[in-house]
Amino acid sequence: MNTTALDRPRSFWPALTRDPMMFTGLALLVALVGLAMLAPLITWHDPAALAPRMRLKPVSAEYWLGTDSLGRDLFSRVLYGGRLSITLAALVSVISVCAGLLLGLLAGYFRQLDAVVMRIIDGIMAIPGLLLAIAMVALGGATIPTMVTAIAIPEIPRVARLVRSVVLSVREEPYVEASLGMGTATWRVLWRHVLPSTINPLVVQATFICASAILIEAVLGFLGLGFPPEIPSLGSIISEGRPFFQRAPWIVLFPGVFLALLILSVNLFGDALRDRLDPRMARQRKG
User: Fold this and answer.
1) Which CATH number do you get for residue 84?
2) Is the pLDDT of residue 100 over 80?
3) C-alpha distances in angstroms, 70 versus 44, 229, 233, 251?
4) Where is the ABC transmembrane type-1 domain positioned along the sequence (predicted)?
């Protein structure tokens, strides 16, 4: 039976301390996620509260990141916007991985379903993901279910193709053929022998899906197709601050830095995790 690096959790922490990129990415990610999730406890201004007399105030002891053009506290808006992006990305990642895993298992293990499933996947991949998200949000409105669905659909085929490639190679392994020869039920073979082989690539793929979902949500907000103005999101905050950039650059700078660091931390951790779970990638980098 195939074993994965995740089956040995004790070896993960020593590897974490020896890998500067993994440690940096994970530490930065934990710090940003912690700030976003603790936003109700560490902010004292309502992110939607208007205060016209305090508009465009610079960084101060009361307003740690200044205020926007409507006098709203930028610190609370950035943290609440990051909280929304992280939650959305987590939902997209879970849905994409679960749906893609199911389709990939069906296409890779059952030959009679392979052609049908892969043609459907190829059709979905022919549609640009951002355009599909824009169309779905424009038709269904900027609600969390619509946003999650719009961002997840283009990611499902990528996960399915990844799982299918793994299943196709594992299906021919001697231990799988021996298990089938002994009369083991198909579902048990999938569960005990095939599924564990997909864990490592799925974990890595999930990190990249999170980064992509955060970026797409920010792009939709920047284009004015995101959530309503009373719900802060990083993309909409940047978009609203563009006309005032020369006078109050912090309106664009701080949410942009938070967004960039969030995506960077996810990608750093994902790259390091890929090297950790796939030794061939690590050897290629060293070479």
Assistant:
1) 1.10.3720.10
2) yes
3) 17, 11, 16, 11
4) 86-270
Total domains in the chain come to 1
| Cβ within 8 Å of residue 221, ≥6 positions away | 227, 233, 234, 235, 236, 237, 238, 239
Domain encompassing residue 225: 20-36+70-277
User: Within a domain: residue 114?
Assistant: yes
Q: Is the pLDDT of residue 283 over 60?
A: no
| 113: in domain | yes
Q: From CA 222, how far away is CA 236, in angstroms rounded?
A: 5
Helix/strand/coil for 67: strand
Residue 5 confidence class, pLDDT cut points 50, 70, 90: very low
Q: Could you tell me the pTM of the whole model?
A: 0.86
Assess contact for 22 and 15: CB atoms under 8 A.
yes
Residue 199 is predicted with a pLDDT of 86
d(CA 175, CA 2): 9
Percent of the chain's residues with pLDDT above 90 = 39
CA angle 49, 55, 59 (to 5 degrees): 100
* 123 inside domain: yes
Residue 58: count of CB within 10 angstroms of its CB: 11
Determine, yes or no, domain membership for 238.
yes
Rg (CA), the chain: 22
